């Protein structure tokens, strides 16, 4: 069983004491690495008297991981490393994340705790529809589901018809997948004349790996007849299992016995008030092979105020609204792709896939939103499509204060991606 009551309901004062102790230990461990032996020079872990003392420590950024590639952040002997995860490294130096046996055990326990909180139980059939290999999502979710006692189907990404066949043959009850693919998969069900609400035994979907709106979550729930739980993680910190929604579906509980959380203004790096959007900064408290101190994730979210009705004391993050480096400026207005998605998902005729294209037209920048029709709306006439495009343009203008051009495409009119969906193509040339 992975209802860890003694940790999940730990009073805040005791949780703070636990974090202080683990922060000291994590600092001492980090200083064994070549990078942190210099970055933390002159810092004595025993001077840490509270979690708030983390603010006196330097930040770590992704470029530090690249500059230290491959072993510059390793804090244990190389012989103790049993697994490597890494970014794709298609451009420039990749980032490498190294794990010891103890790290993998702790990760599996956190993931099992997360899945249990979302309602997955021993005996469930858990279909893992995400990439394996160097990407941390596949193996991270897999090891947690196995640790919990579920029967795991490690099918990976793509091949939608096979996904559906496996669900029906083995009675899949829970699945993990990215939200954009969930919406594509629902379309394939419809093409086959099947309804996942009645033709499968699904009851839980774990969705994450890409930012998504509340409207997208609701659409996944409606299409599949499931409860969809938002999951958060990043490979540099742990992979999945950093934070997860409880049955209240009102914010993601971040496991504060394993990670020290800060939400900071991305420009001033000062703490923001609960409820305000800031950059998520995380410090690992239990990782041995490659601890990270004050890692700037670039993910933007808010720390939710108040206590959760579920009784867990670990603080809650809002859903990730985007990344500080995802924002684009069009005609002087700051825009996040999530804002566009939230508008599109309010229109039932619009499918789950969209693409934002930014271009130079004359002296001004232009923004075009290409949106697929849902399978149910595939038969709209040209006149109806034009009307839908006008209504979308108006709704987007009201939300963004910028009027984009809108193009309506057939279902599956955009290229399918195996991983995270591409949402923005910026073709503008800087003058």
Automatic annotation (TrEMBL):
Pfam families documented for this protein: AMP-binding, AMP-binding_C_2
Residue ranges of the region described as Disordered: 412-431
An annotated GO BP: phenylacetate catabolic process
Keywords recorded for this protein, A-Z: Ligase, Nucleotide-binding
First-tier enzyme category under EC: ligase
Database matches in CDD domains: PaaK (cd05913)
Catalyses which reaction(s): 2-phenylacetate + ATP + CoA = phenylacetyl-CoA + AMP + diphosphate
InterPro entries per UniProt: AMP-bd_C_sf, AMP-dep_Lig_C, AMP-dep_synth/lig_dom, ANL_N_sf, PA_CoA_ligase
Nucleotide-binding among keywords: yes
Recorded superkingdom: Bacteria
EC numbers, comma separated: 6.2.1.30
Transferase in keyword set: no
Comp. bias regions, Basic and acidic residues: 420-431
Cited function: Catalyzes the activation of phenylacetic acid (PA) to phenylacetyl-CoA (PA-CoA).
Subunit structure: Monomer.
Family statement: Belongs to the phenylacetyl-CoA ligase family.
Listed name of the protein: Phenylacetate-coenzyme A ligase
Record organism: Desulfoferula mesophila
């Amino acid at each position: 069983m992975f209802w860890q009551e003694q940790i999940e309901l730990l009073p805040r004062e005791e949780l703070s004491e636990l974090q202080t102790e683990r922060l000291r230990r994590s600092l001492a461990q980090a200083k064994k690495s070549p990078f942190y032996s210099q970055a933390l020079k002159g810092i004595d872990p025993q001077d840490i008297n509270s979690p708030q003392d983390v603010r006196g420590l330097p930040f770590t950024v992704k470029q530090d991981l690249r500059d230290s590639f491959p072993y510059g952040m390793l804090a244990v002997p190389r012989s103790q490393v049993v697994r490597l995860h890494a970014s794709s490294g298609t451009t420039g130096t990749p980032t490498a994340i190294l794990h010891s046996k103890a790290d993998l055990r702790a990760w599996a326990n956190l993931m099992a705790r997360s899945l249990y909180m979302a309602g997955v139980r021993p005996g469930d059939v858990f279909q893992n529809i995400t990439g394996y290999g160097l990407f941390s999502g596949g193996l991270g979710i897999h090891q947690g589901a196995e640790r919990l006692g579920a029967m795991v189907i490690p099918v990976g990404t793509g091949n939608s018809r096979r996904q559906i066949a496996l669900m029906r043959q083995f009675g899949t009850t829970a699945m993990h997948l990215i939200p954009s693919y969930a919406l594509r998969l629902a379309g394939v069900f419809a093409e086959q004349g099947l309804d996942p609400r009645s033709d499968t035994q699904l009851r839980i979907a774990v969705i994450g790996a890409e930012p998504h709106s509340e409207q997208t979550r609701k659409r996944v729930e409606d299409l599949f007849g499931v409860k969809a739980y938002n999951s958060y993680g990043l490979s540099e910190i742990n992979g999945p299992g950093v934070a997860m929604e409880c049955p209240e579906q009102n914010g993601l509980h971040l496991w504060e016995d394993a990670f020290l959380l800060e939400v900071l203004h991305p420009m001033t790096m000062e703490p923001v008030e609960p409820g305000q959007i800031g950059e998520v900064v995380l410090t690992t408290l239990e990782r041995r092979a490659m601890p990270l101190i004050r890692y700037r994730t670039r993910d933007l979210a808010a720390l939710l105020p108040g206590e959760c009705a579920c009784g867990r004391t670990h603080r809650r993050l809002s859903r990730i609204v985007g990344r500080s480096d995802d924002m684009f400026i069009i005609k002087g207005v700051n825009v996040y792709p999530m804002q566009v998605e939230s508008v599109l998902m309010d229109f039932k005729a619009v499918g789950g896939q969209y693409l934002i294209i930014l271009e130079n037209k004359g002296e001004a920048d232009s923004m075009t939103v290409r949106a697929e029709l849902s399978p149910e709306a595939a038969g709209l006439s040209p006149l109806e499509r034009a009307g839908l495009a006008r209504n979308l343009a108006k709704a987007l203008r009201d939300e963004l204060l910028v009027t984009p051009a809108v193009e309506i495409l057939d279902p599956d009119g955009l290229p399918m991606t195996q991983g995270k969906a591409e949402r923005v193509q910026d073709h503008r040339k800087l003058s």
